Amino acid sequence: MDLSKVRLIAVDMDGTLLNSEHAVSPEFWPLHRRLVEFGVTFAAASGRQYASILDKLGAIEADLTVVAENGALARHDGDEVVKTVLPKGALPEIIDRLRKLPEVKAVLCAADQAYIHSEDPDFIAFVSEFYSSYVCLDDLAAFEGDLLKVALYHPESSETFIYPHFEDLAPELVVKISSPFWVDISHPDANKGHALRMVQDRLGITRAETLAVGDFLNDIEMLGRADFSYAMENAHPDVTAAARFRTGSNDALGVEEVLRAVIEAYEHALVAGQ
Asked: What pTM was computed for the model?
């Protein structure tokens, strides 16, 4: 395995780059600087909104490619690479089903803003971690703009209490379990794999030159776009099965372990070329 071939690294955020406290390790920043020196592009690929990703990684915004909203939106050098909106007729059906599920909360995700309807302060506090830019609406059904996705939340289990009520919307829509508490509903082309392919095409980078790291089901398509695909130790079993390689957990700095290996490969290649 020759990691000195890697020119693009795509990394999930929650459960992957971020630790259990939703924080970036101090060890990440110097590793990222070294990767930039070697000409490697770093992409943060997350179910989070664009603004929330920058809240965590704004210090490296100038050298950061962002894949947000599970791939519905991607920007490189400030330019929009892809924007895939939810079909207009999808929202009324989703809202109708939500009315029968009072414990399930919804977030309507537009390109630069999220919209919620909730008087629950605990939910609002929870949402603000993932959607730093949001507005409260009296009625979500009245929203008329373009949406990238609808994110549905249950405090116990998305797989048990949300997914069974919406899975039949596929294949017309993507219904993706994106974390233990979230299900995301989006356009069929709105996934991290599609967005990563568009970024690869934009940069002229192949799958053989791409490394990806993830932990949950919304990362599987992204891992499929990278010859160097890594599952976190804390990954969902299906993600572990889809990845070619393994690394440590998010709390054990598994991403940083992979980044160090890439940097060491580049340094060894430099020495060998001298």
From this structure: 0.89
